[in-house]
Amino acid sequence: MLSVGTMGGMETALDTHAPVTTRDRVRQVTVLVGAIVAIGGAAVGSGAFGGQPIADAADGALSATATPLAPDTPAFSIWSLIYLGLGVFAVAQALPRQGADPRLRAVSWWVLASMLLNALWIAVVQAGSVGGSVVVILALLAVLAVVFVRLVRLAHTGVATSLITDTTMGLYLGWVSVATLANIAAFLTVADVGELGLGATAWSVIVLAAGAALSVAYAVFGRGRPSVVVPVGLAMAWGLAWIGLGRTNGPLVDETVATAAFVAAAVALVAPLITSVTARRR
């Protein structure tokens, strides 16, 4: 049994000497094969090897200039890092010695579900359904939230495996959190709901404030697990900053939204650092 500390009373002790079972081996192989299929499918569907890029799908509803909350094009390069991390995770969890790792047991199926949902999101967008993409990305966000909670509550096991898992899933959750806001904004635009009485700028600022608040909530909940919440904050800050940069040039210049996005990015970046340092001092 591994002795652990506490994170707001939520950490759980883990049995690191449990025997490897047939179910463990099935999980390892399934997650590895599923990851190859999901990552490969996502790459093909996103236009990495030719075909229609996501920015052009659904009549450009999710392009970098479609709404005031759309991140500028360079923001999406973070997917390369996330896919790399997911690939390394898939291989690491499949190693024979990792079969009984209790932390991997707790999250691997959920990580696979997230990869499959991401591939499904791409397929739905390529089919032209922006409304359907909102449903899928909300499901993806929920799955990643489950992974986040489990990683925060469960103690680290192997150093390398824990670092790979925490960093990758933190970046993944942070980016998808920002992408969800942008996706919903794209759907509302396509649905032609108008400016809902406040105007596009005011609503954008409200949504960005909500994004900043969400980053603080992640930081507070995961304050005892900086290896997870710092990557979450980095990815959210990255996405929010590129929303701001996207509003400083191009066809959708909006200084108010840009300022709000930069402030939200700063909050997302600093919040996990503050909460982690505070938790350690206690």
UniProtKB/TrEMBL annotation:
Predominant cellular place of this UniProt entry's protein: membrane
Keyword line: Membrane, Transmembrane, Transmembrane helix
Keyword match Heme: no
Protein name, UniProt field: Tryptophan-rich sensory protein
Cell compartments where the protein resides: Membrane
Domain of life of the organism encoding this protein: Bacteria
Residue ranges crossing the lipid bilayer per the database entry: 31-55, 75-95, 107-124, 130-149, 170-190, 202-221, 228-245, 257-279
Membrane topology: Multi-pass membrane protein
A GO CC term attached to the entry: membrane
UniProt organism field: Cellulomonas terrae
Keyword Phosphoprotein found: no
Alphabetical list of PANTHER family matching this protein: SI:CH211-161H7.5-RELATED (PTHR33802), XK-RELATED PROTEIN (PTHR33802:SF1)
Family per similarity comment: Belongs to the TspO/BZRP family.
